[in-house]
Write a structure and sequence with these properties.
The protein is 69% helix and 0% strand. By secondary structure, it is mainly α. The longest helix has 35 residues, at 154-188. The protein starts with 8 loop residues before the first helix and ends in a 27-residue tail after the last helix.
Length: 320
């Protein structure tokens, strides 16, 4: 529809955050009222009681909660905003074009090759001085994640690929990159700065401070992939690879097909992190060159009736 196009980027940002807050409130009200009905009678307060975690009904309720959180908190408000912000929402979010095979491969390699650096940052981040109460909360969240990742058969693994990898990859990339990063780019007039800000918000909103830096790096990489190509499907693919790889590795470990436990932190030498950063940087440069050669850009194409044929996101690479 494009009703919000007349608003300044700042007002668009306020509108988007207000929309997100409204749906978060809606989700919270739903959770408080209906969780007993979807979990076998358990209340919200019992979500932190490890005594009930062995009940399959509780775990089923937890999976429904995870699904609704991803859908209602991120995907729905982002899609509504895009519909209100641009006559062609798919174009606005970078979803209108199918990804090219080589570009998709490069995007996946960017994420895969950055994993040693992600682990180095995670190891450093775990040493941050945070209160014991925060550490206890994060330990509780880790235990709940392990509950969701209990996969007795391949069917459970495929379901978790949908719940914990594909759906979050689509919803979070649409929210944080497809909408938030685009608004921020128009506001700060610099695509790289906007990418960093969106990545910081992406990491902070997960409320897991001992994993803040690795999640910040991953968010930044997804943002850069989107920035240099203008194709959100590539960022979604990278996000799915990161999440899906964890799910598959955990399943293979539980099935005793591999000895590597992806849920345990392992030491990674800093030199591997530096090499990882170098390789990822070279891959991003290749992705950028191929996107430019193909005429792909983050800037929105002009709509009929635009006087100067430019958009607020034009020439994102002029300022570093």
């Amino acid at each position: 529809m494009g009703y919000l196009r007349q608003y300044s980027p700042f007002l668009q940002l306020i509108t988007f955050l207000g929309l997100w807050f409204a749906f978060m409130l809606l989700y919270s009200l739903f959770l408080a009222g209906f969780f007993p009905a979807i979990s076998g009678g358990y209340t919200i307060g019992q979500m932190e009681d490890t005594k009930v975690w062995g009940d399959p009904a509780f775990i089923s309720g937890l999976k429904i909660v995870q699904f609704l959180y991803t859908l209602i908190s991120f995907l729905v408000p982002a899609l509504i905003f895009a519909y209100l912000a641009h006559p062609r929402p798919a174009v606005y979010m970078g979803l209108a074009q199918r990804p090219r095979s080589l570009q998709l491969l490069l995007a996946l390699l960017v994420v895969f090759c950055s994993l040693p650096l992600v682990n180095v940052l995670g190891e450093w981040n775990s040493t941050w001085p945070v209160s014991q109460s925060l550490r206890d909360l994060e330990e509780l969240a880790t235990k709940q994640t392990k509950l969701l990742l209990n996969m007795p058969d391949i069917g459970a693994m495929l379901f978790n690929l949908l719940l914990l990898a594909l759906l979050p990859a689509i919803a979070e990339e649409v929210f944080f990159r497809g909408v938030l990063q685009r608004i921020l780019t128009a506001w700060v007039k610099n695509g790289w700065v906007a990418t960093v800000i969106a990545a910081v918000i992406f990491s902070a909103i997960h409320m897991q401070f001992l994993g803040f830096m690795p999640r910040l790096l991953l968010g930044f990489l997804m943002g850069v992939i989107y920035l240099v190509t203008g194709n959100l499907w590539l960022a979604i693919g990278g996000h799915f690879l990161n999440n899906g790889l964890q799910v598959v590795l955990v399943y293979l470990y539980q099935a005793k097909m591999i000895s590597y436990d992806a849920m345990k932190d392992e030491h990674v030498p800093a030199i591997y992190g530096l090499l990882s950063a170098l390789v990822a940087g070279l891959l991003i440069w290749q992705l950028y060159k191929r996107a430019r050669a193909a005429g792909q850009t983050f800037a929105l194409p002009p709509e009929p009736g635009d006087e100067d044929g430019e958009t607020e996101n034009d020439s994102i690479f002029k300022d570093y």
